[in-house]
């Protein structure tokens, strides 16, 4: 009687941080533009998560829950930064050295990657989120829907729209040979 | 770019799904059949496949060192938040609405709320506290408290967070008060004496007046040297009366005092024996020197044995 065991204990939430921080950080990194922004937003995400954790049902999908919080944190942030984002949206891939330490920049090897990255950054925010969650974090559409507060079908439509836009941006560019191209 | 035929437009979702490896077998077959005869879509398909390759590269480009650094900084800041974070919940009770708050160290506040509700809680006047409503654990605590107030529970074995004590002395007073068991009564002077500071009677009363954990730290069991209940949670003596009544302590309601002559007495003695109030004039001893029990069982539970002279076990007080 009277044993207090279900308050946030160090092991419980520490385990969540250990398992999920990396991917939440990378998700936010991909959504943001400025150095340090992803770190601020992922901190905010885990602060919010910690505060809400005591009320989280034991059978909840922690991963989807964290992506949802991160998504909301980013949206709130983006609302305040909208003008800045619109300005950024017109910036072409070539000027992304503004964020020299980002994993994105390091990944930009060829023209195709540069174009794809630039297009991803110009996507409407929901499409960008859905695309990132699907393609880079392998969430299924059901969980993406939970994270974005929409149906699985809508989530799928967002991803398809994103792919269509990226493909259009590649029109007229030479493709590297891949196993599927003939 | 040429505009697509309606056939091409219709098959595009399947084409994208196929390129992404998400399509069902029948859709893949439809797409393959279409690609065999449509050069435009074949070109599109190759682009979609190329995008998948680019995405694979992006996914592979992780810099764990960078996020590891960020994680280390996050953990440092989280530990700061943890030390400030307090969960709370308000629930009705027979004594009016009560707020219980807890940190990761234990229960830090039990507060009778006035008309202002939760907003008037002292929780929101404490600097550096980050208060969040909710937490299942608090429901259980409220349930236990409710049982206690209704006399269906005699112990509240809660972990307590005494960090908000105003001083070491207040903490000592609270610890001494926690040791006064259910159904027993001690005096402010008795607590002062126990702490080795017999002159600090008023300081003890002040410390309990600001008790952040009423009921759990049972300051209602601590009374004045004349046997009068004196203060409780500001001017809520009626609550003190009620809590003592639930524990079976005999009261003279009109005089707002306990009925000392109807309680078992214990004056610290080497044999750890408790007595009837009639034993050797013990009822005349200052309250500071004795502890009183409403029931024999409570004295026994406190590790005491019946006095060999007055034999309270053979001649129990009438109830």
Report the span from N to C terminus of chain A.
70 Å
Inertia-based shape of chain A: globular
Q: How many runs of DSSP E, i.e. beta strands of chain A? A: 0
Task: Assign the CATH architecture of the largest domain in chain B.
Answer: Orthogonal Bundle
Q: Quick one: overall form of chain B?
A: elongated
Taking the sheet with the most strands of chain A, its summary is: none
Can you describe what's shown?
- The complex is a heterodimer of chains A (182) and B (319).
- Chain A has two domains: 1-90, RNA polymerase sigma factor, region 2, helix turn helix motif (Rna Polymerase Sigma Factor, Chain: A), CATH 1.10.1740.10; 123-172, Winged helix-like DNA-binding domain superfamily/Winged helix DNA-binding domain (Arc Repressor Mutant, subunit A, Orthogonal Bundle).
- Chain A is an all-alpha fold.
- Chain A has helices at 10-31, 37-53, 62-80, 82-89, 103-107, 111-122, 125-136, 141-148, 152-170.
- The termini of chain A are far apart.
- Chain A is globular and about 55 Å long.
- Chain B folds into three domains: 8-60, no CATH class; 80-162, Double Stranded RNA Binding Domain; 165-306, Winged helix-like DNA-binding domain superfamily/Winged helix DNA-binding domain (Arc Repressor Mutant, subunit A), CATH 1.10.10.
- Chain B has helices at residues 6-20, 25-35, 39-60, 64-84, 136-149, 168-178, 188-194, 201-209, 237-246, 296-301; strands spanning 85-91, 98-103, 106-112, 130-133, 184-187, 222-223, 251-252, 257-258, 264-266, 273-274, 291-293, 305-306.
- Chain B has a four-stranded mixed beta sheet.
- In chain B, helix 1 (6-20) crosses helix 2 (25-35) and helix 7 (188-194) crosses helix 8 (201-209).
């Amino acid at each position: 009687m009277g044993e207090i065991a279900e308050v946030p204990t160090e092991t419980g939430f520490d385990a969540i941080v250990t398992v999920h921080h990396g991917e939440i950080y990378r998700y936010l990194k991909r959504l943001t533009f400025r150095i340090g922004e992803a770190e601020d937003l992922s901190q905010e995400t885990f602060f919010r998560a910690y505060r809400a954790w005591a009320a989280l049902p034991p059978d909840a999908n922690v991963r989807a829950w964290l992506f949802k919080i991160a998504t909301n944190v980013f949206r709130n942030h983006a609302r305040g930064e909208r003008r800045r984002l619109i300005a950024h949206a017109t910036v072409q891939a070539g000027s992304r050295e503004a964020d020299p330490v980002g994993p994105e920049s390091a990944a930009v090897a060829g023209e195709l990657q540069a174009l794809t990255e630039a297009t991803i950054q110009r996507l409407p925010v929901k499409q960008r989120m859905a695309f990132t969650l699907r393609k880079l974090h392998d969430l299924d559409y059901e969980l993406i829907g939970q994270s974005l507060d929409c149906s699985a079908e809508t989530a799928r439509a967002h991803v398809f729209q994103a792919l269509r836009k990226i493909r259009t941006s590649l029109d007229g560019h030479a493709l590297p040979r891949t196993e599927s191209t003939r | 770019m040429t505009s697509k035929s309606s056939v091409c437009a219709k098959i595009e979702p399947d084409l994208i799904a196929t390129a992404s490896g998400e399509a069902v077998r029948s859709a893949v077959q439809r797409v393959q059949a279409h690609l065999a005869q449509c050069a435009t879509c074949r070109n599109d398909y190759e682009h979609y496949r190329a995008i998948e390759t680019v995405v694979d590269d992006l996914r592979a480009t992780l810099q764990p060192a960078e996020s590891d650094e960020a994680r280390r900084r996050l953990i440092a800041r989280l530990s700061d938040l943890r030390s400030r974070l307090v969960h709370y919940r308000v629930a009705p009770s027979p004594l009016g609405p009560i707020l219980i708050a807890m940190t990761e160290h234990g229960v830090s506040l039990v507060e009778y709320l006035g008309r202002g509700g939760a907003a008037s809680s002292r929780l929101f006047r404490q600097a550096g506290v980050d208060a969040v409503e909710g937490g299942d654990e608090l429901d259980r605590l409220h349930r236990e408290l409710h049982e206690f107030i209704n006399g269906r529970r005699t112990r509240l074995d809660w972990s307590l967070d005494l960090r908000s004590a105003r001083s070491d002395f207040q903490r000592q007073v609270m610890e001494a008060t926690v040791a006064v068991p259910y159904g027993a009564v001690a005096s402010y002077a008795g607590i002062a004496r126990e702490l080795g500071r017999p002159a600090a009677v008023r300081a003890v009363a002040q410390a309990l007046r600001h008790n952040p954990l009423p009921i759990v730290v049972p300051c209602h069991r601590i009374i004045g040297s004349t046997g009068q209940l004196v203060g409780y949670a500001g001017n809520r003596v009626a609550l003190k009366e009620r809590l003592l009544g639930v524990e079976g302590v005999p009261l003279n309601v009109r005089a707002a005092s306990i009925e000392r002559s109807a309680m078992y007495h214990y004056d610290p003695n080497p044999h750890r024996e408790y007595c009837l109030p009639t034993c050797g004039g013990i009822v005349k001893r200052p309250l500071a020197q004795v502890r009183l029990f409403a029931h024999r069982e409570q004295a026994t539970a406190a590790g005491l044995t019946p006095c060999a002279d007055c034999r309270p076990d053979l001649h129990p007080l009438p109830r």
